[in-house]
Amino acid sequence: MAMRTFYNEIKGMKVKELPTYLKPMFTIDYLKNSVKRGLDNYHAKYIETSSVDPLYHICFGGMIFSYLVALPEERRHLEHQQQHGAH
């Protein structure tokens, strides 16, 4: 939804106008306010409604994070196994 809004805002602009439009969006204050607004929306949507979804977000996020942390080691193991054959 946010991407669609952003696209609709910039699709009528010329390329020369784009940097002046985007530059204020990359300031520290703008990013802080965006994160704060996102956290407030998350809190209103999930925490205040006593939803079980935050628990799912933590579980699945933890699984994805642990997979990404272990991925380089698994890739090295697979590459070594392919180079030297299965033992």
Summarize the structure.
The chain has 87 residues and is mainly alpha-helical. The chain is 76% helix and 0% strand.
What does this structure look like?
It is a single chain. By secondary structure, the chain is mainly alpha-helical. It is 76% helix and 0% strand. The radius of gyration is 22 Å and the shape is flat. The termini are far apart. The model has no long low-confidence stretch (mean pLDDT 93).
- What summary fits the major beta sheet? none
Structural class: mainly alpha
Q: Please count the beta strands (DSSP E, at least 2 residues each).
A: 0
Q: Considering DSSP H and I runs of 4 or more, what fraction of the residues is helical?
A: over 70%
Annotation field: number of helices: 4
This entry's quaternary arrangement is single chain
Order of helices and strands: HHHH
Organism: Sesamum angolense
Protein name: Fiber protein Fb15
Question: Top keywords for this entry?
Answer:
4 helices, mainly alpha
How would the blueprint of this fold be written?
Layout (H helix, E strand, L loop, with lengths): L1 H9 L7 H5 L5 H20 L5 H32 L3
